[in-house]
Amino acid sequence: MRNAICTFCGNACDDIEFDGFVGKNLCPLGEAKFSAKQRIEGPVVNGERVSYEEAIDRAVEILVNAKRPLLYGFASTVNEAIRLGVILAEKLGGIYDQCSSVCHAPSTLAMIEEGIPGGTLGQAKNRADVVVFWGCNPVEAHPRHPSRYSVMAKGFLTKGRQYRHVIVVDVRKTATAYLATEFYQVKPGYDYAIFSALRSIINGHEDAVPDEVGGVSREKLKEFADILVNGKYGVIFYGLGLTHTRGSDRSVENLVKLVQTLNRHTRYIIQPMRGHFNVVGASAVAAWEAGYEYAIDFSRGHSRFFPSEFTAVEALIRRDCDAALIIASDPAAHFPKRAVERLTEIPVIQIDPHPNITTLIADIVIPSALVGIEAEGTIYRMDGIPLRVKKFKETEYWSDYEILKLMLDKVIRLKGE
What we know:
Elements: E1 17-19, E2 22-24, H1 28-34, E3 44-45, E4 48-49, H2 52-65, E5 70-73, H3 79-92, E6 95-98, H4 105-114, H5 121-127, E7 130-134, H6 138-141, H7 145-148, E8 165-170, E9 182-185, H8 191-202, E10 212-213, E11 216-217, H9 218-230, E12 233-238, H10 240-243, H11 249-262, E13 267-272, H12 279-290, E14 296-297, E15 304-305, H13 312-317, E16 324-327, H14 337-345, E17 348-351, H15 357-361, E18 364-366, E19 377-380, E20 386-389, H16 400-415
Parallel strand pairs: 5-6, 5-16, 7-8, 7-12, 8-9, 12-13, 16-17, 17-18
Antiparallel strand pairs: 1-2, 3-4, 3-18, 6-14, 10-11, 14-15, 19-20
């Protein structure tokens, strides 16, 4: 198979070739994704092996009897399954939340306030002569990003690395910093202040900037601002180093304002470096179905968005949910202790191809087919470009879509809706 899509990170590289089970053009992370791994052998209910139909029946019974179930995950499945998940949460009067609530949620909040001067990875590849990586490390997190879309990519208007000014801003010297033309090491939590200083300099008010901001001297900030303003087309990629620092959503909001300031002089876009291959889809599908991207509560019969109350972590810590359906995610490995403790107290249903920490606490485990290998569907790349992932291997495992479709049908039948 040619031009297959790698379903690991937000790059969603679409030039993968398979000769049997040997993949070409895969990075080390992609190779690990497609290598043989331990699989959940079959549906399990309270430690007992059962059929798919019986496991789904028991899962639906738990969800229907729950007062406010939590449906969480969705970042590693296809849009068709995500849509069913949102509808299922609505029918159950539960909470829909997905993985970005613990990573790029500040980006969503900032975009609600300021919008997003966005673009595509294709624009970055073909046009950008200034590339900034702020609080992200693509060499290790998105290994093919520098070669396909940013640092070394050969575009129509920008022919390669020698024509680009690459800037890395981080609290430590990362692997990506060694590819940079300039590296600015900043103090943790000072991103907002540095954005404000750059905006002041670009607006001609450099005298208002202190001698040092966040560990960077005023002279260095002036050099930084000059590079940004003199670029013909620039892109700022940012990651969890920005969204997980003090201020988070306000820092991203200030970054948007910086880009708006730059766009009075030249052309800039920003792009969050999204992790899972379809975490953008988990946001976009929820937005078109329910009006919001995450932390959506349906308990009153309509969608409500309140990130300080309806995210999975908050709902679990507040003990606001009495059952959980976890799809294509492993919250027990990543959530705070109090949230995981609550998961151990309520019925947990998990849908996932591989055993993980959440499997150990789940009452019902339903194995699913691997997206992009055993199941097909539509996903969104990190820049919002829709792609169709292919299926190239037959399997006895049910896809996420098939499992959720049967669940939804049974819930509608039981509730008479």
